[in-house]
User: Which sequence fits this backbone?
């Protein structure tokens, strides 16, 4: 008997009886502990704050219901880190916990789909060792939490499908609403779920009140951010339009986009998630989940999304694929089941050092060269020795130290009339985090949400400017000095001179509201 019919039969039996396979509690504890320990020991070992993390810490100091380029929950996560001291360890333990919860939820989803202990183990192991989720769980960004809300919604949807209990949609609404406050891309996920429901016999759920109440709950939770967007003339839409117009991101064709997905998930794990997609689409009961992935994939490809925008939806396929593999191996010898796990582990474990922060940069580059791995660019102007999530963790303390040397070399009477102008939020965030120990004032910037926190309370006579070109200082300064700044492993854009601009020819307070830098 083929694997798919056998599994379909098992799924119908599970649904009719209402009983699920036993939860592999011991396996869940071991995998979750491994995930937490892995990130706990690697996330703060050799590298520093990620550019976006510096920005989110600034957001945490200005809590609001919305921001130019993100939803409000990321500032809450960062605020928790600040309350724990704001150290890198305090910051990074939060996404590590989120990644640990994702392992558990993925195992629960495999069980909901009818998977026994082996399927739960395989699903959790795939999430634990998948390169994409290793990176996501190593940095404090919205991406670390996004799959929790999405897969939580899918777990509720699967329970509705299995039990027919439509009241569970209320939980879907809560999770979706919180997901929207975490990242706006949840709108695309919700669209994919709605289309998938309409394309299957589960469209009957729209004839019941519960799914509509769930939608109202999600809207109510999202409403504060919507009101903020309206009051601020929809800056997020403007920001996204600027990104498209400026050609900031690398645009991939359909085949190249698919290739990057296979690489980012790890080629060996294609043997798990692809059978999962096929099985979901083949199985009438669970087809809605497979179509959710397909619709979302098409939306992302058509909109030329970054490759990582698709990552949060893959746990669906890993859970389904684990169940399909379990049933395919059900009548095989125990050694065959063990061999399948061994092959996955032997193929994925050697790649773990490339997607966690356990190696010094020199060793990481040597390791990548040894195995022939070259990370793909996601932004057109990305220039660095290391892939962007790593390169953006270098150079910030050195930048602040160089700025402090310039600032503290000035006579005290000049310092009080000298401000710091940062070209982007990473530089501003670095000054605001590390600057106080050097006696630096806060940095000002018109990049992203920093624009709303200005203008400065005084008109500066002098400015220390970061990310200005020589023409800019020539046009706007009576005189200037250039100070070289370089950090080997940082992003190339940061290895530019820092200028001391004397006799500023413009009034920051007057020009502030005439332009902003949103991209």
Assistant:
């Amino acid at each position: 008997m083929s694997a798919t019919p056998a599994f379909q039969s098992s799924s119908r039996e599970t649904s009719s009886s209402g009983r699920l396979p036993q939860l592999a509690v011991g396996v869940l504890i071991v995998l979750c502990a491994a995930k937490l320990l892995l990130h706990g020991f690697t996330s703060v070992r050799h590298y520093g704050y990620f550019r976006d993390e510096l920005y989110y810490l600034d957001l945490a100091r200005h809590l609001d219901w919305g921001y130019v380029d993100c939803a409000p929950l990321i500032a809450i996560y960062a605020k928790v880190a600040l309350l724990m001291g704001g150290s890198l360890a305090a910051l990074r333990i939060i996404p590590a916990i989120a990644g640990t919860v994702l392992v558990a939820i993925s195992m629960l989803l495999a069980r909901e789909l009818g998977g026994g202990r082996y399927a739960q183990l395989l699903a959790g192991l795939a999430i634990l060792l998948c390169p994409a989720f290793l990176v996501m769980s190593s940095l404090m960004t919205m991406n670390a939490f996004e799959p929790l809300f999405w897969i939580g919604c899918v777990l509720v949807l699967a329970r509705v499908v299995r039990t027919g209990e439509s009241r569970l949609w209320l939980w879907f609404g809560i999770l979706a609403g919180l997901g929207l406050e975490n990242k706006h891309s949840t709108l695309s996920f919700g669209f994919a779920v709605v289309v998938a429901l309409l394309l299957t016999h589960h469209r009957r759920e729209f004839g019941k009140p519960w799914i509509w109440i769930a939608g109202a709950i999600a809207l109510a939770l999202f409403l504060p951010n919507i009101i903020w967007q309206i009051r601020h003339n929809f800056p997020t839409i403007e920001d996204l339009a600027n990104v498209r117009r400026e050609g900031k991101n690398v645009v991939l064709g359909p085949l190249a986009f698919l290739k990057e997905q296979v690489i980012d998930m790890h080629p060996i794990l294609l043997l798990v998630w692809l059978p999962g997609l096929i099985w979901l689409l083949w199985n009438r009961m669970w087809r809605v989940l497979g179509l959710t992935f397909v619709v979302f994939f098409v939306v992302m490809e058509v909109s030329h999304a970054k490759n990582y925008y698709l990552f949060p939806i893959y746990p669906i396929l890993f859970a389904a694929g684990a169940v399909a593999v379990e049933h395919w191996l059900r009548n095989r010898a125990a050694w065959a089941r063990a061999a399948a796990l061994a092959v996955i582990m032997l193929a994925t474990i050697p790649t773990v050092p490339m997607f966690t922060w356990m190696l010094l940069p020199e060793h990481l580059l040597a390791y990548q060269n040894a195995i022939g791995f070259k990370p793909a660019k996601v932004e057109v102007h990305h220039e660095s020795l290391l892939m962007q999530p790593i390169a953006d963790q270098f150079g910030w303390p050195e930048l602040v130290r160089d700025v402090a040397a310039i600032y503290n070399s000035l006579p005290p009477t000049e310092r009080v009339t000298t401000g710091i102008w940062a070209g982007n939020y990473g530089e501003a965030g670095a000054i605001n985090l590390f600057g106080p120990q050097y006696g630096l004032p806060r940095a000002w910037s018109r990049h992203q949400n920093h624009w709303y926190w200005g203008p400065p309370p005084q008109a500066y006579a002098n400015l220390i400017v970061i990310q200005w070109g020589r023409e800019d200082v020539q046009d706007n300064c009576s005189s200037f000095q250039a100070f070289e700044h370089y950090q080997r492993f940082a992003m190339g854009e940061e290895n530019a001179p820092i200028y001391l601009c004397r006799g500023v020819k413009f009034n920051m307070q007057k020009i502030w509201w005439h332009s902003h830098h949103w991209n």
